[in-house]
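Records of this kind hold a single protein each, on a pair of labelled lines. With that in mind, the following record should read easily:
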Amino acid sequence: MAFKSRLKCLFLKPIFCILFATFLHFARNTTPEIISMKYESEKLGNHLDISSNYQTNNKKVILKQIKPYRTDFYQCEDGKFRFVTVRYTNVSYHKAKGMYVIDEQWYKQEKINKKIKETDKFLFSMHRDELIGIKKKEGNSYIYDLSTEKGGDKYYYDGNSVEVLKFTASNNETTGTIEVKPIYTYCKKQLMPTVASSLEIKKYATDVLGNLYEVKDNKLKLEFK
């Protein structure tokens, strides 16, 4: 009987498993009476409220997974780097223009929310797996080096060198945190550097021969094919 009960629990969702186990305990009179029970899940992170699309009674309907389309980086008047995350839900197709469009008013409001002024300098847009170069103050440890996972030597910024990494996505716009990966190796650890107070950030790419070069003259695009 106990084996069968455990087997059934494996195929039930957590809340139903708890209720099933509780029923068994009551049936055997092996536990005191349970007055109340609460099931807790993870905290709500990035989400889109789509409640207006449904008829609900004081309940929210949300889209939990909102994948980022790109991240736009700016150098602000105070010297800090800030960014705007454009998600797929913010991009729509304009049939008359035959182009994909990001709403200009929405984008302006996002810049205000992120404390980015109209006079602040647009640097570049980053998509997943493009290359970003980060330069930090002398003495700061590298985002990824041989000590990250393998117990090797630890590297430190000298104030001149740029560490080039593979951009994954923005993580937290308030703290200026992004997610990156090393270029030439696999890393199990999640790398989440804060770029707000970096000395410099640049966009890089490689040519057909694998030579690394800086991508310059980047233009902000709110309409594209």
